[in-house]
UniProtKB/TrEMBL annotation:
Function: Thiol-specific peroxidase that catalyzes the reduction of hydrogen peroxide and organic hydroperoxides to water and alcohols, respectively. Plays a role in cell protection against oxidative stress by detoxifying peroxides and as sensor of hydrogen peroxide-mediated signaling events.
Keywords assigned by UniProt, alphabetized: Antioxidant, Disulfide bond, Oxidoreductase, Peroxidase, Redox-active center, Signal
Protein name, per record: thioredoxin-dependent peroxiredoxin
Any one biological process term the GO annotation gives: cell redox homeostasis
Record's keyword annotation contains Oxidoreductase: yes
Organism of this sequence: Dyella psychrodurans
GO molecular function, a single term: thioredoxin peroxidase activity
UniProt record similarity statement: Belongs to the peroxiredoxin family. BCP/PrxQ subfamily.
CDD domains xrefs: PRX_BCP
């Protein structure tokens, strides 16, 4: 347990250090048309192609970018989204996580009962193109950094940012850990409150 905790702390530190050491970029804000994307994703350990355009036909979409699967804050965030999944469903909202993790890592993460628990999909943005389209900062892979399982993380990190996208394809809210000083679980609580307001016909 001690080794697992130390690994989590090291990985989390690596995932956040870059974002405080570089100039702040402005992530796309409310009112902006959300860049469309399709990506290879995993749900409950099975891969499929996720389409933002198709998901928006069902209602609002919560697109949350995170640094890496199997790291402290990202694990908490995934677990919290999974716990509240029924509430997002009731609001008619779709959840999709996005990181630079490989599909192999995401197949494990998406089915892990402690994290995504097979309740929502996570997509692979291995080349960072999706994150770039949303104007998010990224850090290159850091050799030697390991996740909570002791497995080396061989991909880059995307800054933790959540976008709530309305069914009209426009960004309703942008939630940034850095700019808004949010903890991982805050992304879940705030995005849930926003989609519930949308469901009630209220402006967030």
């Amino acid at each position: 347990m001690k080794k697992r905790l130390v690994g989590s702390i090291v990985a989390s530190a690596a995932a956040t250090m870059f974002f405080f050491a570089t100039p702040v970029l402005a992530a796309l804000g409310p009112g902006t048309a959300a860049p469309d994307f399709t990506a290879q994703a995993s749900l409950a350990g099975k891969d499929f192609t996720f389409s933002l355009k198709e998901a928006l036909k069902k209602g609002p979409v919560v697109v949350y970018f995170y640094p890496s699967a199997y790291t402290g804050g990202c694990d908490i965030e995934a677990h919290t989204f999974a716990t509240d999944k029924a509430k997002f469903d009731a609001a008619g909202a779709t959840i999709i996580g996005v990181s630079e993790d490989s599909l192999k890592r995401l197949n494990a993460f998406s089915s892990d009962p402690n994290y995504c628990a097979g309740k929502f999909p996570v997509a692979s943005d291995a080349n960072g193109n999706i994150a770039t389209s949303y104007n998010l900062k990224m850090e290159a892979a850091q050799p030697g950094v390991k996740d909570v399982r002791g497995v080396e993380i061989d991909h880059g990190f995307i800054e933790r940012t959540t976008f709530v996208i309305g069914s009209d394809g426009k960004i309703v809210a942008t939630l940034s850990s850095e700019a808004d000083h949010l903890h991982p679980q805050d992304h879940v609580a705030k995005s849930l409150a926003i989609v519930q307001q949308l469901k009630a016909g209220k402006a967030p």
